[in-house]
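User: Structure please.
Assistant: Input sequence and predicted structure:
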Amino acid sequence: MERIKKFFLLLFLMVFTCLTVAPTVNFAVHGNEITAKNGVLDLRDINFEEHNYIEMSGEWGLYWNKFLKPEKVPDNPSTFVSFPHIWMGSEMNNETLPGEGHATYTLKIKVNEESLSTHKGLYVPLISNASKLWINGKLVSQIGEIGMSSKDERPTYNPQVITLDLDKPEIDLVLQVSNYSSRNGGIWGEFLFGNAEELRSMAEKRMLKEMFIIGGLTFFGFYHFVIYILRRKDRAALYFGILCLLIALRSLIVGEVILTDLLPNFSWEWHRKIEYWTISIAFPVFLLFLNAIFLNYIKKSILQMFFFISLLYSLFVLFTPAKVFSYTINFYQLIMTAMMLYVLFELTKAWKRNVPGVKVLLISTVIFTCTALNDVLYYNEWIHTGDFISVGLYIFIFAQSIVLAIKYASTFQKVETLSIRLGELNNTLEEKVQIRTSQLERSKNELKQLNQKLEILSNIDTLTNVPNRRSLNQNYEEVWEMNKDLLKPITVFMIDIDCFKLFNDTYGHQKGDEVLKLVAQSLKNRLDMVGGFFARYGGEEFFALLVGKSVEEAVDIAKDMNDVIHKLKIQHKTSTVTDTVTISIGIAHSTSANLVEKEQLISKADEALYHSKQIGRDSISLFYQNEIKHL
């Protein structure tokens, strides 16, 4: 059954491809049947009731780097080129033409008298980048503004059908073309001559085909945006939606250039930038989609490298004019081709591993790759097939929509299966509740132990690993209440690292954090030896508390702490004291004879610290018997 489904899916893709490409097929006489020779296209034997229109290929007269008006054109051109004619790399009189320049083309068309009974028309294809067209000396078309330099030229894209009012069987066509705005000038498509009504019908069919593709891509894009909004974890739908809209945008500006009809005054320069961006942005999004749908089959390092190149290229296009960035497209196309071959290699490996959905993806990717390569060859004038990347991607996108739909249907089936299993599990709910209750009891005990550990951690400063301000407040309150009735002396030390801001500015905050840790641990070790309490007060300030020590003992301990820091010999070349890290200490001592209130003791120690800083730092000051003394 599964094989039958895949067969019908692949059959549908083939039929859909034919139906999508069919509107691009015309009923023109082409190939080697009728071509212009020596600047003359002889159509006198053509029955336009059988052949709606013909391609005006063959030898056209060319006057390079000259603008000739009809009355100035010689009867017999000396130089002929094969039409359509793209300039860069083409040969003329053993000379290779550049992509920039201007030229005049001439062609004489001969029709029979019977052909004049119906209105004839002329289809003007994409011309790079500005043109003027005369028929029998009458100006019938002007696309942009031609010029002999980039300052004079105003480039425009606008394929169109012109209705001709002919009164004689010989038609003199004069076409002036200029390109000073991009890499490659010339005529990119076939001029068509035939019944005006049929030409308009052909142009409308091409336009409808483009609009059909644009409409479908836009629908797919917003549809998958909705899927992503409903299920944010599904990034494949997001990338797929973005890809659809980017290609829809590209379809507006290539082929029949529908954007020109919608916005006639839209900037040609931005038109070209968008054309290039839809390549440099859409292809990375395409790779993100593949990577998301098949769970990172593409190596991350290769993706990142390609994204970086694409970002640089997109910025290059943004900040340079078309005359510059259009010369770089071959470089990016080469990288894209290499990346696509790598993707096909990875998808082939996934096929061998029987990854679900990869077969349809691989086939549609091959179709898309072929159309992309076709466009690269077409725009480099190596083949003359036309622009098919939008069709190829449309097929790819439609196929992936089916794959995603199958994926979502499979997910829904899994949900239904889980719902059935949930119903079965509910039948044994009571037993599971008992088990769960027992588990919760164990979890409760574990949580209690964790809370005890958390209580300990909440009283520790995470940087220096000494007690923090919260622990200081609790400890100070307990010590004071415990000893106020026993009348034991209480000593408070306020300690500050000298010129610490200058240290951070000189050596950086990371080095400053290391110094805070070292100083804190060194002082704490000294206080632990005498049963004191040590904590971080805030920033580079620390707090110490002693109980039952005389004022002389307290001063000795302060001197010891100062010596401990001196012995560390931590370099501090921007200190205003000395070339190593030092500390200043303020002491406040309370006894039964010289009682200082609980709230004032820390304040007085802080005043003593301030006094130590004022007299030059790296010093000790004592508040005792209502006065501050420098020690």
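The chain is about 50% helix and 20% strand.
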